[in-house]
Structures are given as C-alpha cells and as structure tokens.
Predict the structure.
Amino acid sequence: MNIFNLTFPLTVDFSGGKYWINGEGPYLCGEATTAFLAGEIRCEPTGNTSQLTQELETVLKTFGNHLSPFSQKQKTTDDLYQQLEQSAAACSVNYAFLPLQGSVILAERYTFPTLRDFLYVELGRAILHGNAPRQCRLCGGWFLHKQGDRAIYCERIAPRETEKTCREMGARMVFEKKIQDEDTWKLYKRAYKKYYARYMKGNMSEAAFKAWGEQAAADRDAAIEQLRATTDAALSASIIQQLKEKLNQL
C-alpha cells in the first residue's frame, strides 16, 4: 500500500510533521492532500470528489491562507469559519511504538473510516507544521509547499514546452521582469550580449569572458544595493552611469 492507492478503514501513524501508512513511509503531512487535489490518489470508494475538493479548499482558505496556497488571492470570510465549525473528522486515536532505523518512536495511531476523514486531519496537521498544497503560478497544478520553501512554480513540464519545467520557466520570467524593471539589469544584459558575441567570434578568450562575467555580476549587485539605499535622484543617476562605464571598460 502507498499514498496513491488507499483502502479503508485506514491506519495511519503520525509523529510530528510525518506519518506512516501500515508501516510504509515516512510521508510529509500534506502529501496526500496534494496528491488528491492533483487527481493522483486512487481508493475505493471515492465518494463525491468535487465536494471533498471544495471542503479541502475551504480548510486551506481558512487556516492556510498565510502559506499563499492559491495561484490567485483567496478571501477568507466568517462564513468559512462557521462552515468548518459544523464539520469534523471521524476517527479513533490510540498510541503506538514504531521501530525505525534501530530506534523506537512514539506515534499517534489514527484509524480513519473514509478518505475525507483522513485528508481532513492530514491537511490540518500539514498547515500546523508549515506545509500545504500550493497551486503552481504558471500551470495551476498542485504541488507540496514545504515549510520555508519559497517556490511558487511546480516541477512539471510547463505548458507549451517539451522539456522545460514550470520552475525553470518561472525563473526565466522573474529574470526577464528584473531586466524590464531595473536599469541595472538592462545595462548588464546589454553588456553581456556584447561581450558574449566577442567570445563567440573568437575575439575574447574564455578565461577573459569568465573573469568579465564574474566582475560584471559583482558590479551589478553592488549598484543595486547602492540604489536601494538612496532616494536621491542625482545620486541614483550617478550610480547607473558608473555601472555603465564599469560594464563596458574592456
């Protein structure tokens, strides 16, 4: 048995932000709910998946909104709190010792009668530990957001792409936005193209191009920090001009 093929009643051992299903695992809290929202969990009987999806999204909106799980901002209303107060998970709870890698840990052993009850508890524990399903900002598919993870794009193949992932395309989009928004990045890209062309034509050695690239990136980052530290327009213009000269002094 694994997290994608479940039978009920289901026995799950929770310890911290992880859990084991019939001794298999550990899985991170949030993995099962993410798999369900992504349409990857198979179990019998499945029940009303549309209604369950809505209920799990309500939990996310109400308690996990601080983790920014949705690709578009979701509002939380008092109605959601009242709706959740009327719902609960049915399960029995006990304790068990789990032998793991030569040691033994104490776990909370839950027995769930349905998929809905399992996912309700699993998602709640995930949010408590800083994990949650997250919608990719590019394709809209669900992936697991782990505590401290800043990723907003998944690692599936991006729409209209054959090899590049959403995460790769997203990083490219962020880079392009920086270039469009910041004069420093515009200057850097322009200079990079110039010296890269010289290198490709054989007019600049690989070592010289690499040394220029390292220095150019350092000059660019230093200029960005200087610009962040000032609101003086004349000083900002001077910093930009100095960066332009440094990037093109070869």
Q: What stands out?
A: The CA atoms of residues 13 and 109 lie 4 Å apart. The chain has two domains: 5-145, 182-247.
